[in-house]
């Protein structure tokens, strides 16, 4: 939710513009929810400042996702839960394998078809 959307709906919100979790130092979170840019695109489209930053995921749609996966063990509390939205093209089974190597179990919360996307929400926990 953007700050302007929150204000229009009379919701108090502190907004921070940062690269993933780069502004947090030595913080641990009980819940991390990530709705990433997951569309398969050219790598050059990733990480821009334009509207494409909201969808451009690069190779396999996972360039941004994979960067955060590497950070989850450091920022998630020992009993914490990490929720991640993916599409079929992101190869969710590979994501599950990556998180397993970090010591995380997983379960599928929901799978649904939304227009042309087969979406899945995964839950990771220790």
TrEMBL record:
Single GO MF annotation: nucleic acid binding
Signal peptide start and end residues: none
Domain of life of the source: Eukaryota
Organism: Euphydryas editha (Edith's checkerspot)
Keyword annotations: Methyltransferase, S-adenosyl-L-methionine, Transferase
Keyword Transport on entry: no
GO cellular component: eRF1 methyltransferase complex
Name of the protein: HemK methyltransferase family member 2
Family: Belongs to the eukaryotic/archaeal PrmC-related family.
A single GO BP: methylation
InterPro entries per the UniProt record, alphabetical: DNA_methylase_N6_adenine_CS, Euk-Arch_PrmC-MTase, SAM-dependent_MTases_sf
